[in-house]
Model the fold of this input.
Amino acid sequence: MTKEKPSIEATRTYRAQLLICAGTGCVSNRSFKVRDVLIEEIKKQGLSEEVQVVTTGCQGFCAQGPIMIVQPDGIFYQMLTMENIPLLVEEHLVKGRPVEKLMYVPSKDQPPIPKLGDIAFFNKQRLVVLKNRGLIDPERIDEYIARDGYQALAKVLTSMSPEQVIEEMKASGLRGRGGAGFSTGLKWELARKASGNGKYIICNADEGDPGAFMDRSIIESDPHSVLEGMVIGAYAIGSEHGYVYIREEYPLAMKRLHIAIDQAKEYGLLGEDILGSGFNFDVSVHRGAGAFVCGEETSLIASLEGRTPEPQIRPPFPAQSGLWGKPTNINNVETWANVPVIINRGSEWFSSIGTESSKGTKVFSVVGNVTNTGLVEVPMGITLREIVYEIGGGVPDGKQFKAVQTGGPSGGCIPESLIDLPIDYERLAETGSIMGSGGLIVMDEDTCMVDMARYFLDFLRSESCGKCTTCREGIAAMHDIVLDICNGKGQPEHIGLLEDLAEAVKDASLCALGGTAPNPVLSTLRYFNDEYEAHINEKKCPAGVCRELIHYRIDPEKCKGCMLCNKQCPQDAIDGEPKGVQIIDDEKCIKCGVCLESCKFEAVIVE
Ligand SMILES: Cc1cc2nc3c(=O)[nH]c(=O)nc-3n(C[C@H](O)[C@H](O)[C@H](O)COP(=O)(O)O)c2cc1C
Ligand code: FES
Done:
């Protein structure tokens, strides 16, 4: 390893380090601008020699961004703006008084929590894959190396045979984090044993699930962990070239990946004769155009080769005949990032985390009707309740929890009665859902489960590549039926028809897009059948979401005649005098909900 001479900055000891997040969420809330003002202000106060500003990857608490942690005390600041930086520098860094008003407040009636380690969102998590998140600058390889980076690679190349690496991976129990949950060690073994040379390694960073950002965040905050995992995997299967297939919409992750590749090459950790071992391996980055089906491994390979991204019948599996017809091992970003930790800490340690069948941790992007949205890493076996209430802070605005959807668009909706379910691959499958790649959407009482099924079917029918008839026609047919139900045209026989179609699509589709597409329908039919019946038999949407089935009315007891709704209605559908009761004309009303949002007296009723 020919390391650069350390800069003065790298050798200096600072009184305080300001770790400001530069993940996509915080950057979109102007964290780079905040950082620049911070650096200026620190200069102005003459603190540049004592205080260091470090830009880090996503810290997971994206909804509170831009966020910053002041070390060594671990003080956590959130929702920073350029305007409040002078106060923060003056108070905290000059006078030594942390600024309460910029700290995290769990709820209105609770005091601010100064330290990151005391915030439930962080302290219930178990960081394995994300162990470096927020602690290193992802654009500086030295910081990764300072936290044991590339130690696993050195260990593998100097003291382990490829077979021993594979055995260690098998013993760890690591299963693919891209969705299917296949044993990573077994997959590597198949690729190693496959005859033929010119084998390939692929990192699947397509991440097409709406609302999911686990893989993007791992690459943004710790790109070297993924690269190191890939080099180890390449050594194990006997490959000299790898690809990272990453979607075009991830420019920051892509930029950091390129920087990491260049730095790793400069340090002799990638390219020819890695660490003087005689082993060669290089990585190229391939930009995907962003179709959901491109994440499916055989479609991804077709896309990499420049062909139409349609799935192929398996077998042959990629391990037998993959990219350019060569044995290929494809793993998800999170799977690769687990590899160096397993080698460093050992399979026994790794398999001590999790459940009987699912070892280690899982990264989830928690979104929807939950107070703390963001990225969390938790041990397998944690319950949904712990994720939603302890880490997620529960459902906001005093609303009732209704369901959690796991597994992305083709996952299932899990009801409140199963909220104490420990999460692992098998338990989720038993509920009719899937682990998928880690999307977790929380839904409150205002969510219509029939409309939810319609939404996911709409996504899946437009993302189906159309190669096989059952997937192309079956998903569209299910969508049209559910849409009819939402529009008040549902018939009792539709339920049986949906179940039959779901079974056919599940059984006869070429790839798992069709194979799992019925999950949203089947799970909502299973747990929320009463909502389907209300839509079909009573022509009512109990959650007040499906437009064709709802009416807006003003409660004369509550209306104060303030005229706010009347003035804001875009259709002139509200009649009434100032200080008098307002009345909605059902004929003119387009159910846009503006009156509901504008009323301060909760006088607008949806029924
Ligand atoms: C429609 C569809 C989309 C998929 N999208 C992704 C994806 O975005 N990322 C991913 O890693 N795996 C995705 N997969 C799973 C891959 O086919 C494959 O199983 C995975 O990349 C293997 O890596 P693993 O063993 O590490 O999970 C998708 C599968 C299907 C059917
Ligand atoms: S992007 Fe800053 S916390 Fe996620």
Notes: The mean pLDDT is 94. The first helix runs from residue 8 to 11. Residues 491 and 536 are 6 Å apart (CA to CA).
